[in-house]
Design goal:
There is one protein chain. The chain is α/β, with parallel strands linked by helices. The chain has 10 helices and 10 strands. Strands 4-3-5-10-6-9 form a 6-stranded mixed β-sheet, with helices on both faces. Helix 1 crosses helix 3. The radius of gyration is 24 Å and the shape is elongated.
């Protein structure tokens, strides 16, 4: 195989990070045709396909993702060196793209990113999407990390996902303050209606298992997989729910809702998912470290 042309590799790196030949051509002040040609020459040199088109999107192949991990390290270090030679200091990446599952608690998301708000020179972008689109965003390196309350299964050692537990919050029975039963669950709950997370969620599975041990069947009037929708339902219907108190912290603070009791061994887990890569931006590792579960 011929020696790698690092000029071609650099253009590949820029396109892989942006996901757009048009945008990269504008940023690098070259024509789209010239940029495409140089990437094709790199693929020819390597005898490997680095990109594939999915609709209008340019997506990395499995080989492309592996090549990108090396290009990340090569050119990120090169940019640090260039900054050091020009300014006498090392520049680090200070922008992070975070994907958020559409059904995730906004209060949790705000808590997770709070360390970024303390950094004067950090910018971040939040994108809310469905799970499939979030993972695709990681694969194309459009996103640096993803926040979700669903774990990602690792089928084998070649799996590209890295999933880190960043928060585990206890789940409580929440309802209107004036309807709080005097006795411990499930006594006094027979006449109450429930609004609950759907069956696919970890909360609902754990809650159903706990109810089963007590021989209690909740009278479910509504289900939703969106934390924001559950918050509205329990606030406006007079029903009770099983949620982490953080989801309705404002309503609890103003007395509209109350935490009836903590459910034993029922938790909601929150995960940060990243993609396996040789070079990980410092801002990503720092944020994960500040949110690690101990």
């Amino acid at each position: 195989m011929a020696k790698i042309n690092y000029h071609h590799l650099y253009y590949f790196w820029r396109v892989a990070l942006s996901g757009s030949i048009t945008r990269t051509a504008e940023e690098c002040h070259v024509s789209q045709s010239a940029l495409s040609q140089q990437i094709k020459q790199l693929e020819t040199t390597m005898d490997m396909q680095l990109f594939k088109r999915v609709g209008r999107q340019l997506v990395l192949t499995d080989t492309g993702r592996k090549v990108l991990t090396y290009a990340d390290e090569i050119f990120s270090k090169g940019e640090e060196l260039q900054s050091f030679l020009k300014k006498g200091e090392v520049a680090s990446q200070r922008h992070i793209n975070i994907g958020v599952l559409t059904t995730l608690s906004r209060n949790f998301t705000e808590s997770f990113i709070s360390p970024l708000l303390q950094e004067s020179n950090v910018k971040f972008t939040l994108s809310t999407r469905g799970m499939t689109n979030l993972l695709n965003g990681l694969s194309s390196h459009e996103l640096d990390l993803v926040l979700t309350n669903r774990s990602v299964s690792q089928q084998n050692d070649d799996a590209i996902w890295q999933s880190q537990l960043v928060s585990r919050q206890s789940v409580s029975i929440i309802g209107p303050a004036e309807n709080k039963p005097e006795k411990k669950f499930p006594e006094g709950y027979d006449s109450l209606k429930w609004v609950l997370p759907t069956g696919i969620t970890e909360i609902r599975s754990a809650f159903d298992a706990y109810c089963s041990t007590l021989n209690y069947t909740p009278d479910v009037m509504a289900e939703a997989d969106d934390m924001a929708m559950l918050r509205l339902l329990v606030r406006d219907t007079g029903a009770v729910t099983a949620l982490p108190p953080v989801v309705v912290k404002d309503e609890i603070a103003n007395g509209r809702l109350a935490e009836y009791q903590v459910l034993p061994n029922v938790f909601e887990n929150f995960y940060a998912i990243t993609i396996r890569r040789t070079y990980v931006p410092e801002i990503v590792t720092s944020l994960l470290h500040k949110n690690i579960v101990t």
